[in-house]
Protein 1
Amino acid sequence: MTTVSKQLLVEQWQTLHNNHENYESYALIIKLVAVAITLFALAFSVTSIVTLLLATLWLQEGIWKTYQQRTVNAIIEIEGKLDLNEAEQTDESMKPYLVYKQFQTNRPAVKALIAEYISNSLKPTVVYPYVPLMFLVFIF
């Protein structure tokens, strides 16, 4: 692979990686909107439909995470092209661009992956704010 084509792949990798990180920001915005809607609903006593709105926002965040995963898939494709052959293994400058490929290689089998998803779904950073907000709406 030529130096120019490697550089173009690295630039594409960087762009996609930045997009991947931006999806995290969008997920946070969705969570903040969920909090704002709940506070508005509680302040004006219109909690009847809020649970449905919160579930919709939770699903919307899931959709954003799906887009994010598709970006990861494109990054892994690029990393496959950047993957170093045996003769180039000493070139340390290319190794940082293989992070997604290495992650994909270490991904567990389906059952273990499902267990990992459930485990991660129960982490406070994912549960929050949806479950607490839904609980808050139910008690009012």
Note: The radius of gyration is 20 Å.
Protein 2
Amino acid sequence: MNPILKNLDLIDLISERHGALRKISENLWNENSEIYITNSEWYIMSRITGGQPTIAHVSKNVDITRQATHKFIKKLESKGLVEVKNVKNNNKEKCIRLTPLGEECYRKNEALKASLEEKIAKKIGNEQVEFLKMILKSDWGL
């Protein structure tokens, strides 16, 4: 057992594992792609995929400041991963969508995460992974 994890409570254990997995995932992508994408950018892309939400909606639904969200969206736009457009009949609102390149990167990253999940399952067992997913998806009554 990793000595760092030995005395952590549930919340800190989840946080440590989440941070480690996100770092591994980010590094795997960036080592194998010419387009550098940060975890925050992936997080924003995950909120956009499959739709055309407004920037305001994305900002409200990510745990990132509004200013930082706008900064990340501009970076994603400069990389050709998202497209920002005006909302019909509303000059103040802008909507955002993944470009075909953004969709392709997102699909490739989903496959990369699936392979990472497979590695975890090989180490701890498929049943344990499924059990963990079930626990994490369940209503904790909080």
Note: The mean pLDDT is 90.
Protein 3
Amino acid sequence: MDIGPLSAAKFYRSAKLATKPNPQAKSSAEVFGSALQDFAKVMQQGENTAKAAMAGKADMPSVVEAIARSELAVETAVTVRDKVVSAYQEILRMPV
């Protein structure tokens, strides 16, 4: 294996291209905002389906499906919250 200035420059160039940011990638704020909008949409659909069931305009399978989707969305949000709180606590425990 030849390790010289030219091979080092070639490897550096390939590594530099691999770490170059993608300008079309979404920022973390956009991804988080999109996830919150999806969560709100799922919860609103579940609420609308429950209201329709109380009015006698929805069948039971759709109500069960809406409740299951809402439950999954809430469980996911709680899991993400727990991970964020855990990470924050871990940061607070770090020595300065």
Note: Residues 41 and 47 are 10 Å apart (CA to CA).
